[in-house]
Design goal:
The chain is built from three helices and six strands. Strands 1-2-4-5-6-3 form a six-stranded antiparallel sheet, covered by helices on one side. The protein has 153 residues and is α+β, with helices and mostly antiparallel strands. The longest helix is centred in the middle third of the chain and has 19 residues.
Length: 153
């Protein structure tokens, strides 16, 4: 996929329209043909009681990374929602930033599975995740509640 400035602007707007993402400080570092790389800078208010980045922040980052990768691939035309998310934490992150390199492994007609490799700003692999999204438009464009969800995570 050609990465145009418009596509990146659309992906950044997708992140920005969810206030929680802004609170976490999530930002796009790079778009790739098979996914995207996001960054979350470590701040005091994101740490757990042991002084490491809270696991919930990491889980949110991987969820958003795959959602943004899907939105980038489809140029924001697909309504999506998270179905499943599994994070394996290898090492704590206590400073700097957490990078999430999302790759879309399988894009089907109903589900999309993405893998996220997590690294610190020194390049150490600190975790990995698998995230599954559903294409809501594949089910007639409506959620169980009857309203479309174009925002994903």
């Amino acid at each position: 996929m050609k990465n145009s400035k418009e596509d990146l602007a659309r992906a950044r707007a997708f992140i920005a329209k969810i206030p929680f993402n802004a609170f976490l400080g999530l930002e796009i570092l790079r778009a790739h043909p098979d996914g995207i790389t996001l960054r979350c800078k470590v701040r005091q208010e994101l740490l757990n009681s042991h002084g490491a980045l809270h696991g919930g922040v990491t889980a949110s980052l991987v969820d958003v990374a795959v959602g943004v990768a899907i939105q980038h691939r489809f140029r924001g035309t697909r309504s999506i929602s998270t179905v499943e998310l599994k994070v394996s934490y290898f090492l704590p992150v206590t400073g700097g930033a957490l990078l999430a390199r999302a790759r879309l492994l399988r894009v089907g007609s109903t589900l999309c599975v993405g893998r996220v490799d997590l690294s610190d700003n020194k390049g150490n692999l600190v975790g990995t995740a698998i995230v599954t999204y559903i294409f809501l438009d594949a089910r007639g464009g409506k959620q169980a509640g009857g309203s479309p969800n174009a925002e994903g995570s």
